[in-house]
Amino acid sequence: MSFTRRAAFTLPVGLYATAAFAAPKKTTTPAAPALERWGLYEISLKGPDTGNPFLDVDLSADFTDGAEVVRVPGFYDGDGDYRIRFSPPKTGTWRWVTKSNVTALDGQTGQAEASAPSNTNHGPVKVTLDGYHFAYADGTPFRQIGTTCYAWAQQSDERCAQTIKTLTGSPYNKLRMCVFPNVAAEPIHPFVQTGTGDRDWDGTRFNPAYFRRFESRVKSLLDIGVEADIIIFHPYDEKRGFSDQNRVHDERYLRYLIARLSAFRNVWWSAANEYDDIKTKSMADWDHILELLQSEDPHHRLRSIHNIKVLYDNNKPWITHASVQNGTAVLDDRTAETYRSVWKKPVIFDEVCYEGDIALRWGNLSGQEMVMRFWHGHIAGTYVGHSETYTPDKSGADGSWLGKGGTMLGTATPRLAFLKKVMEDGPAPGIDPIDKWWERHVGGKEGRYYLRYFGDQAPAEWAVDLPRNGLKGGEQFRVDVLDTWNMTVTPVEGVFTMAKKDNYNFHDPARPTIKLSGNKWMAVRITRV
Amino acid sequence: MSFTRRAAFTLPVGLYATAAFAAPKKTTTPAAPALERWGLYEISLKGPDTGNPFLDVDLSADFTDGAEVVRVPGFYDGDGDYRIRFSPPKTGTWRWVTKSNVTALDGQTGQAEASAPSNTNHGPVKVTLDGYHFAYADGTPFRQIGTTCYAWAQQSDERCAQTIKTLTGSPYNKLRMCVFPNVAAEPIHPFVQTGTGDRDWDGTRFNPAYFRRFESRVKSLLDIGVEADIIIFHPYDEKRGFSDQNRVHDERYLRYLIARLSAFRNVWWSAANEYDDIKTKSMADWDHILELLQSEDPHHRLRSIHNIKVLYDNNKPWITHASVQNGTAVLDDRTAETYRSVWKKPVIFDEVCYEGDIALRWGNLSGQEMVMRFWHGHIAGTYVGHSETYTPDKSGADGSWLGKGGTMLGTATPRLAFLKKVMEDGPAPGIDPIDKWWERHVGGKEGRYYLRYFGDQAPAEWAVDLPRNGLKGGEQFRVDVLDTWNMTVTPVEGVFTMAKKDNYNFHDPARPTIKLSGNKWMAVRITRV
Q1: A311 to B504: CB separation less than 8 angstroms, yes or no
Q2: What average pLDDT does this structure show over A103-112?
Q3: Model confidence over A16-48: pLDDT tens digits?
Q4: Does B334 contact A341 at a Cβ distance shorter than 8 Å?
Q5: Residue A33: which residues within 8 A CB-CB, separation 6 or more?
Q6: Does A326 touch chain B (CB under 8 A)?
Q7: Is the CATH number of domain B434-528 1.25.40.10?
């Protein structure tokens, strides 16, 4: 794979559309290639390459379909190239006009024709109206099964290709990834270097090659249907201090990311990993960063922030969903549910310890323990993130999946694919805890669908008691027994006809219990006939 | 006990000080009885008794000690009596001057001399600087062991005397109680009745006798050292609709409560019980109610709101501590801890199901289950509330402790006294979860004090592993085994000298484990020598 800009932006047709402009002012020559709703439209302009264009040049374009106007920021891509990227939220004709403090870039006009999306383009992921789940903009549910490869994007092309191959066809549909690497990476720098020391770099000059390379990784995820949860700051590189700049520099960096990346429909913004370990920023700084993302991103991508110990107040209006680290929150569904109830937003437990074999306790889950956490999260109506931390001996000298991507060595992945299939076969956009705040451990949709997960318990039978809400008696259900580790679905013969059992439960008096295998990792699914 | 106003306000000296004024304007005749810091000082004035004084008369007094000015609202107490109540936050001379739109009440002056508090007066309860616990204003820790008797204050004097007797010497130091009764009560009405129908009452005219009676109950709790967690609205009386008035009426009611009650130092404000079941108020109404309490109460009493299903956003600035209902939050300490971490405020689980024997699931905990919930809350650095719901057959025809107070029939109370003693013997102002977000189940203070509770597990031995933070090796601890049900403390002989065990733990290599009884409800306490 090549990292020249051209390569990144000429494939495939239908996802990208570009309009290139020669120098003569006011002469517009739209290339008018195929552009889809939620695709990426790019305006290319030639402008000054002297001075410091990152500081000196203001550039934006107003796009309108006649009903709304979207102001889209532009950015400098080096060598006198300026670009403005827009992802049309609706089909139809979007006329645009540029604004700039540079004459050559100001007052350019053109139009983009956004057609209906192709089959694999469902639009960006949004929070659903119920407030707790996700769906693509076209309404297709987004059943989050996340994973993390912090610095995969900064590895060699070969390693990145391997990562993409690993992800292709896997259950993972969201990947957490850092803009600034946290582990050893290819020798390319996000800022222009002014010397050979760690701190010898110019925070006012981005290195376009670095960001072209980074966005090509985002694009390669888009091509395989994986959301890119982009981690903007992190505490793991105090030596170089990319996350320790002042507010003026941070704002410029955020605006650069917005201008370059927000038009990719698979972009999510994660303000930080372990934000509370970044000693150079205050809570007011984080509020400001997230508020800026909210107000300045014309594409309104999802926004969250990930903690180590101090939970962010996810009730704040610029947070679209919670991104939580907690080693024990998904040891049962009840604790997981708590976060949902306090924030009333979707909750993703993006870090719940990792499958692996390192000595540190956060990186040595068995596959069973990893999968159990996902199931507890699902029953609670929340979502979970995976990663792997197998030691270099097992994963090769390049380090773990968590740090660099590559290949996976764990056993959780196929079981998470099984869980994802269960999710997809269940109600849209997701399930909710039923009779929460009681010892039920049941998620679903009242009257329609129930899922009970037994984790590391190994019951030999189970009373098929359904919580009363949504039931009147007479409803018929079929029951499946799921082995979540061996990935089997075994239907229980016949139907269950519900009748009131007591103050809180309905059941079938003719068959109040079912037999189970006595194995661990079992679940029961109860579906209205 | 008499409910005339005089009876309520003449005893005991030292808690009350009153200044009574005859009619002639500008002639002040302060009685200047003994007044303590945090005691109650009352100005009595004669004014109009025609028209509707509740609507027509504005009255307040500015109190100043020269350093600060406190504006204190007055209220109408019927029969031409107007009162202004002030609890001095500091010792010294507090000069005051009244303001009113009625000439007879305006421009009165006087002064109050606040002496140092007596031994049993520790001041009002405040949130401690660490943000998670409570202490009286003089710094004495307040170890909350709550209970609830919703409508005890509206029962007969005899029943109330019985309630006070039950509470005296009990572990309970906070009582949740409603202004408006939720169960059968004495035939006295908070508003002036205009007919015999349920809705025949005048929301613009309070019944002073009702509120005098109510405040005498608050006062009787103060006399025995119990905080009064006053529930302002509730959803249990749709028939009469006291909680369903409009905002103008609600504001007047809130101001009346503030003026009458806030000078009692044991008052806490609970905006509602099960606020989300009151269908006539929106979230904006609740915000407004709590913000009004925050801005208008000159004594800044604690403020919370109690839910049924929808948690209030306790991050809001007018909330001093969370008041949570959840049937399962304290089934383990980890879930309980979650609430603390998200709100970063003290958390009281005011409703966790009750000890009792009714058929409804929220009212049939065993004593063991009730006590277990308190211990889990304590390990998590949170607080819990008790009540009893034994059926009338057992508790007499007058109903349960939960509804009406009286006597208790349960077995939890002495065990809660034992827990309270453990709390009092522990660090001030309280303990915090240690190595939270891991499966530790340990609360305490790092390096100083550790408490591990086993609940309904029944281990025969336990590895004395202390989480690493706060330890370097060489520290010595003594260990006590607590039987939380049989209320015994058994010291383990000798000391434990800590050394590093692994990445996360310290222990004594010479004695890494201790034997336990194999019984349920055990705990281990580890105290630095």
Answers
A1: no
A2: 97
A3: 565 655 444 444 444 446 899 999 999 999 999
A4: no
A5: A13, A16, A17, A18
A6: yes
A7: no
**What pLDDT, in 10s, does the model give residues A450-501?**
999 999 999 999 999 999 999 999 999 999 999 999 999 999 999 999 999 9
Q: What is the dihedral of CA A457, A462, A463, A465, to 10 degrees?
A: 60
What CA–CA distance (Å, rounded) separates B315 from B113? 38
C-alpha to C-alpha distance for B269 and B257, rounded to whole angstroms? 10
pLDDT in the model for residue B399: 77
The interaxial angle of helices B367-379 and B333-343, nearest 10 deg, is 40
Taking CA–CA distances from B360, the nearest residue in chain A reads A503
To test the contact with chain B by mutation, choose from A328, A503, A504 the residue with the greatest count of B C-beta atoms within 10 A, namely A328
Is the CATH number of domain A125-425 1.20.1290.10? no
Q: At which residue do the structure tokens 């119920």 appear?
A: A130
**Which residue in the set B341, B361, B503 is minimally distant from A504, CB to CB?**
B361
A476 touches chain B (CB under 8 A): no
| Contact list, A465 vs chain B (CB under 8 Å) | none
Instruction: Express each pLDDT in A136-195 by its tens digit.
Output: 999 999 999 999 999 999 999 999 999 999 999 999 999 999 999 999 899 999 999 999
Residues pairing with B497 in the sheet: B476
Chain A hits for B432, CB-CB cut-off 8 Å, are none
* Mean confidence (pLDDT) of chain B: 93
Whether chain B has a CB inside 8 Å of the CB on A339: the answer is yes
Task: Choose the mutation target among B437, B440, B446 for the interface with A, i.e. most A CBs under 10 Å.
Answer: B437
For the sheet with A174-178, list strands across it: A303-304, A267-272, A227-233, A174-178, A145-148, A383-386, A347-351, A322-325
Query: Could you state, in order of their start, the residue ranges of all structural domains in chain B?
Result: 5-114, 125-425, 434-528
pLDDT digits (tens, 9 = 90+) for A334-376: 999 999 999 999 999 999 999 999 989 999 999 999 999 999 9
What six digits make up the tokens of B257?
Answer: 């409560």
Which tokens in the block code for residue B210?
A: 């009702």
What is the pLDDT at residue A238?
A: 86
**A341 contacts B342? CB cut-off 8 A:** no
Q: Note whether A331 contacts B504, CB cutoff 8 Å.
A: no
Whole-angstrom Cα distance, residue A15 to residue A37?
A: 9
The per-residue pLDDT for range B380-434, each reduced to its tens digit, is: 999 999 999 997 766 655 679 999 999 999 999 999 999 999 999 999 999 999 9
Instruction: Write out chain A residues lying below 8 Å of B382, CB-based.
Output: none
Q: Do A5-114 and A125-425 share a fold?
A: no
Cα nearest neighbour of B311 on chain A? A342
A437 touches chain B (CB under 8 A): yes
- Chain centroid to Cα A391, Å, comes to 26
Cα(B282)–Cα(B279) distance, integer angstroms: 8
Looking at residue A314, its pLDDT comes to 97
Six token digits for residue B33? 């009885």
Q: What is the pLDDT, as a whole number, of residue A427? A: 98
Contact B216, B8 (CB under 8 A): yes
Q: Is pLDDT at A201 greater than 80 in this prediction?
A: yes
Distance CA A175, CA A228 (A): 5
Q: Is A504 on the interface with B (CB under 8 A)?
A: yes
Question: Cα–Cα distance between B260 and A147 in angstroms, integer?
Answer: 58
Q: What is the pLDDT of residue B395?
A: 60
Q: Do the beta carbons of residue B467 and residue B437 sit within 8 Å?
A: no
- Homologous superfamily of domain range A5-114: Immunoglobulins (2.60.40.10)
Q: Which residue of A has its CA nearest to B340?
A: A311
Distances (CA, A) of B389 to A311, B365, B370, B400, B401: 37, 9, 12, 5, 6
A382-437 pLDDT, tens per residue? 999 999 999 776 665 567 999 999 999 999 999 999 999 999 999 999 999 999 98
| Residue-level pLDDT at B24 | 43
